[in-house]
Amino acid sequence: MIRSDRRLLRAGAALALLVLLCSTALPVEAFVQLPSKERMQVHVTGAKNFGSEVVFDKVVSTGVNSTAGDALEQAAEIDLSGDYIESIAGIKGNQQVYWFYYINGLMSKVFAYGYKLQPGDVETWDFHDWTFYSMGGPSAVLGAFPEPCLHGYRGKVAPTAVVYAPEFAAEARQLRDRLTALGVAGVALKDLNALTDDEKQRDNLFIIATADQPLIASVNQQLQAHEPAYIAGNQIRTRGLTGKDMQAYGAGYGLLDVIQSPWNPLGNWACQNAVWAVTGLDAAGVRRAARVLTGFPAELSRSFALVVGQGEVIRTPIPDGGPQKLALNTEGEPAQQPVQQAAALGVAQEKATPVATAGPATAPAASGLGGLPQPPAPAAGGRVARYWWALLPAAAILILLWWLIRRRRRQKAEETPQEQELI
């Protein structure tokens, strides 16, 4: 090979390598803090046994293209076994208990490294039983109120409506006003009989009615299957940490629970909308439940379902040591918590819009169960894989060099006979 050709090839190869390295370098945010406009704040929490024991609670600053798995790594130490999350904060799962995660109160349907975070997302992890409380529930976190009405899932927020039986019109207005004060846009008020099928399938619904109403009865079918509290006959029944039936409550008690919508055409794990049961065995129980939800205190921010009695609230599932009761005003006007307290309820108030827009995928076999197969932790190789497209310009440079060298050789081959003829 002619020396000049070798030099040209070496120079081109060096340029191609430089392009490849620059394009596939690990994201800058792994080493330095990017400007605030390119980052976002994400609230990441973790607890055991349905929120009863806090393990970690952090607000982390993460890049605009980060996943739930990336944010978790900043909030707690995790261990992976292959593609499985084996433990979080030293707490290891097994065949009975494991880590589940929720985004803005909805159990996620994709793996942690498959969910791309959006500004304002709240990421909740809970380590609990999955022998009874399996993929069917709890499918949502009551304590995330008013989520997912604020930030939704993957940045998509369903419309919100407060649906009520006529005798609870005053409670419905109070709840509507509270949701509006917390930042939920366009909250509609709907009489039970005015709710359309489209709204039923599409919207986030707060249903305020007694247990004998058809809508509540339909929701109760889901509660009976996999939720920590449900209605049976003239009782509100509770379950324990492993799904075993525990205490039952009668007249005057209300029930607060939330599930992913059972009427969504894509199923009750679509991560699109939620339904709140604000109900009771009688009007007194319903009003008590409505007052607690409207004045929702920070002490209930990690709850999954609540039984509400006169002056008390019982968290469910019931722990092995017996019911955990919280004394609350359930009889007068709802105690309005400051709007700023929404952050304490797991609602991120920062709504910074990233400069680089990106945006939303379903993997029906994936879930909020942290231990199911998921992509490995984003080490160097994982991040480099995201930049496979960098091979294209590098390959183009090498192909161009190869073509130039062949062209030069052909030209020299054509010039040599001509020179010999002249000689």
3D structure, described in words:
- With 423 residues, the protein is of the alpha+beta class.
- The chain folds into 3 domains: 3-27 and 392-422; 28-137 and 353-383, Beta Complex (Ferric Hydroxamate Uptake Protein, Chain A, domain 1); 142-342, Chitobiase, domain 2.
- It has helices at 3-24, 68-75, 169-181, 197-202, 214-226, 283-294, 380-385, 391-422, and strands spanning 39-48, 53-63, 78-81, 84-88, 91-92, 97-103, 106-107, 122-129, 160-164, 188-191, 204-208, 229-232, 235-239, 245-249, 254-260, 274-280, 305-309, 312-316, 324-327.
- Strands 10-9-11-16-15-17-18-19 form an 8-stranded mixed β-sheet, with helices on both faces. It has a 5-stranded mixed β-sheet with strand order 2-1-8-6-7, with helices on one face. Strands 3-4-5 form a 3-stranded antiparallel β-sheet, with no helix packed on it.
- The protein is elongated.
- Mean pLDDT is 82; it is low at 26-36, 339-366 and 371-387.
